[in-house]
Design a protein that fits this description.
The structure holds two protein chains of two kinds.
Chain A lengths: L4 E6 L7 E6 L5 E5 L5 E5 L13 E3 L2 E3 L6 E3 L15 E2 L1 E4 L2 E5 L2 H6 L4
Antiparallel strand pairs in A: 1-10, 2-3, 3-4, 4-8, 5-6, 6-7, 9-10
Chain B lengths: L2 E6 L3 H13 L4 E7 L5 E2 L4 H5 L5 H4 E3 L1 H6 L3 E4 L3 E5 L4 E4 L4 E3 L2 E4 L3 E3 L12 E3 L3 H13 L2 E5 L3 H12 L3 E5 L12 H13 L3 E3 L4 E6 L3 E6 L4 E3 L2 E4 L3 E3 L2 H5 L8 E3 L10 E3 L4 E3 L7 H15 L12 E3 L7 E5 L7 E8 L4 E8 L2 E8 L5 H10 L7 H4 L3 H5 L8 H5 L5 E3 L4 E2 H11 L4 H8 L9 H12 L19 H10 L5 H7 L11 H12 L13 H5 L2 E2 L5 E3 L10 H13 L4 E4 L5 E6 L4 H10 L12 E6 L13 H12 L8 E6 L13 E6 L2 E6 L11 E6 L2 H18 L6 H8 L1 H8 L3 H15 L6 H7 L11 E2 L2
Parallel strand pairs in B: 1-2, 1-9, 2-5, 9-21, 11-18, 12-13, 12-18, 13-14, 20-22, 34-35, 35-36
Antiparallel strand pairs in B: 3-4, 6-7, 7-8, 10-19, 15-16, 16-17, 23-24, 24-27, 25-26, 26-27, 28-29, 30-31, 31-33, 32-33, 36-37, 37-38
Helix pairs in contact in B: 1-9, 7-18, 14-16, 17-19, 21-22, 22-28, 23-24, 24-27
The chains are: A mainly beta, B alpha/beta.
The structure holds siroheme, flavin-adenine dinucleotide (FAD), iron/sulfur cluster (SF4) and FE2/S2 (inorganic) cluster.
Amino acid sequence: MTQNWIEIGQLDDIPYLGSRVVKTGGTDIAIFKTATGAIFALEDKCPHKGGPLSQGIVHGKSVSCPLHNWNISLENGEALGADKGCSHVILTQIRGDKVYLEFPRQSKATGTDG
Amino acid sequence: MKKKLVIIGNGMAGMRALEELLKIAPKEYDVTVFGAEPHVNYNRIMLSPVLAGEQKFDDIVINDQAWYDDNDITLFSGEKITAINRPNKTIISDNDRIIPYDTLWIATGSDPFIIPVPGKELDGVVTFRDIKDVDEMIEASNTYENAVVIGGGLLGLEAAYGLKQNGMNVTVIHLADTLMERQLDEAAGYLLKSDLESRGITILTEANTKELIGKDRVEAIKLADGTTIPADLVVMAVGIRPSISLAQKAGIDCNRGVVVNDHLQTSDPDIFAVGECAEHRGQVYGLVSPLYEMGRALAGFMAGYNSHYRGSVTSTKLKVTGVELFSAGDFSGGKGTEDIVLRDARRGVYKRLVLKDDRIIGTVLYGDVTDGPWYFQLLKDKDKIDDIRDHLIFGQSLAMGDTAVDPLAAVTALPLEAEICGCNGVSKGTIISAINEKGLTSLDKVRAHTKASASCGSCTHLVEQVMALTLGDGYEAPTATPMCGCTDHTHDDVRHLILLNTLREIPAVMQALQWKTPNGCSKCRPALNYYLIAAWPGEYKDDYQSRYINERVHANIQKDGTYSVIPRMWGGLTNPAELRAIADVVDKFNIPTVKVTGGQRINLLGIEKQNLPGVWADLNAAGMVSGHAYGKSLRTVKTCVGQEWCRFGTQMSMGMGVELEKMTWGSWTPHKFKMAVSGCPRNCAEATIKDFGVVAVDSGWELHVGGNGGMHVKACDLLCKVETDQEVKDYAAAFMQLYREEGHYLERTAPWVDRVGLDSIKKRIVDDPVNRKKLIERFHISQMGNQEDPWAERAQDSVHAHEFKPLADVG
Ligand code: SRM
Ligand SMILES: Cc1cc2nc3c(=O)[nH]c(=O)nc-3n(C[C@H](O)[C@H](O)[C@H](O)COP(=O)(O)OP(=O)(O)OC[C@H]3O[C@@H](n4cnc5c(N)ncnc54)[C@H](O)[C@@H]3O)c2cc1C
Ligand code: SF4
Ligand code: FES
């Protein structure tokens, strides 16, 4: 798999302690910004019942799912605490004031993502 | 013959590099310096103290004319270079002077960035970069009153402080929501803001300049939200751009800055760039220490050594007298990082260390910066800290000393007369003797007997440590349930301390009450946001990122991520125009489900998030507003048909319901709040399982409170009987306000009434007319400004427009 960085927007367009959505052909991607400006991306799908994590409350380096309040680590997508499950992590990169996401080329072509 | 070195720029980087070169190769070059400013080389950093009147220009000169003379340096000051002619290896000045070079240094620094707003060229609009700017500001402060500084970064705040010292009214306009957001995290930014505000500087965050107004001289500044602020002086301190135009015109590789390699060499091997104008490994700098490191490497290379510059890690301080702040490295807290946070509310101290792989990678210190240099050294040296980790945050002396093993060591070490509770002046000795003499074993008892930690509560932890020390195993740790894992305080404590200490923002609460996490969690943030709304009506600015999604976007999220929309139907009444508009909007947006709710209104389900503003716009057009079906707020007021139609009705229940709803809609409450009005004791509106239920009787109305349908069905208790419609409204307002002021977040009225007791509520509302009146007043004050339809704001003015649009579509 080759790396494929795609520019998805300006750093400033993502609110602190908030999130934005990137639409893809398949599962949406949620881009998060912490209080300190760190950027993370996860597939926008809670490991519990598929809740849109982008709509959750961001705190520290985790997000609380809007549907049943599971806490998901932004770093590795793992459910925290007693809950078990994992959301797919998408690599991010900040160049200047732009945010890039990594899309594995193959998965898009073969539709095996998510 | 000596080689000719020509330096463009008589500033800090160029001259420091030259000093370094003269130290190691004093005679090698014949040096000529051009400086656009008509001055010798001075310390630009110290312009801030000059502005504040703490120093004079003479104090900040680094190298006077004698230095140039003694070292045979030819200085052309007040002369600007206009072009570099690389084929001929000459440069040309604005005096048409042409000088040849063998080696050329570009040390042109940066240009302040001017935001492109109308009015930017008016008199009285200045930047903050050189002595000329400072002179202009000081002069303005002699004549004029109002200054506005655009930019709440290091430069802007130093300018604001200086102008304040010169007696001006100063307002800082800052785009981001925290000051110095590149150097400080939210918590430290908050402390800085309150420090500056206490010095009389007004600070507006999330404020965007739209226009400068004035005829010849600037008179006012207008913000994007329409606010106008009088301004006779506007300082633009929004950032700097490396000054690269000379190099660009000469065809030298430039990116953000003039691109250099590790020898500071540009794409032309005879031309070097040093200072803020240089870009090294993709990085440009705006502080002097990296420029000094560049200078050393450049001088070494010029003197024939194989010296390299490998980039710098920087740290920041703010030169505002009395403000202690230190920040270094990366504290954005990316992947794999951990935080250690210490807050000492009484001393106004906040310390945060960011660790990765057992090493410090970033730090923010506020209020106590003594250990800044030590942390910075550990950071730069990439030292492993796992051995001293437990005590690292307490600073070098404790972490490195042998007291480091016992967590109670710091308290043990305190002398008996050391003050533990500042509010009530209680010493360690007093607490210990009270414990021993009276046999106290719990915090509550210690509080009751000594008053220690009974006021602001910020020393609670210390008091507990003294107890643990004195009692050993006999100490009963407190049992009250804290709000969440981020704090030891209970909901009641937090509400109480917010008022007692006039805490007005979430970061203020977290700092003062010593939160254990940098920015709370999904439990405490919404609760704090509500408590602040209730405590400071009209003043507190809602923190929407601390709201649950439904309240953030004013719709209910559904299991598939779509939303539902429930418009208000006053008292459960509707009409053909509303129904038509609903039918039209359902057709237009292909809304899959339309349902009548249990709350007597109509729910439109399955709407895509991006369609919400469109749906709302159409509903607004027909006069409908949000039903707040998503809010911890007033929900519905159900009614029955009542005396208006019903053959048994004794009062106008529909009319009463509509009036109650018109009075209370938009109000935020600890949990949802529902009302109902029935026209007779048959009670078809189910008023006796509502938070506030009204049942008509022949002689007037019965008022019932604290009922609940839902999971644990509970019938209301009778509060009292009243005669007039006005009394119904007054009691509703008083009851709702008491609940707003006392309920724990997410506690419905039923458990709240159980907790405080119906008698206590009756005593304060029914038996005490003065108190009832005060509650009613406070309710109405809190309602001011609350009845703006949140849908309309989003449908028209695109408040939070970003919520409803994807950032990108890469599908
Ligand atoms: C839409 C509606 C059902 C319906 O189709 O009728 C409804 C839907 C939900 N109710 Fe309800 N409740 C609805 C009337 C009621 C009623 C009846 C009433 O208001 O007269 C009750 C019982 C009365 C009461 O509250 O005491 C009711 C008691 C609850 C409860 C239990 C509350 C409790 O204190 O025990 C919950 C759970 C909660 O709030 O934690 C709940 C929670 C919910 C939530 C918000 C679940 C959730 O958290 O997502 C549902 C949202 C669906 C959505 O997104 O639209 N809903 N819910 C009703 C909206 C009324 C409206 O017009 O605003
Ligand atoms: C008010 C203020 C406070 C500061 N506080 C701090 C601080 O606390 N800590 C810190 O580390 N840094 C601070 N800085 C930043 C620091 O001053 C700069 O990083 C440093 O001065 C940059 O050095 P330089 O030589 O690259 O640029 P400069 O010092 O700006 O020197 C460049 C010089 O080149 C001249 N020039 C430009 N173009 C031409 C041309 N074509 N021909 C001839 N001459 C030209 C300019 O007139 C200027 O004199 C502060 C800056 C300011 C303005
Ligand atoms: S009763 Fe349960 S399923 Fe039905 S709307 Fe209320 S919360 Fe949802
Ligand atoms: S779907 Fe996320 S917690 Fe249930």
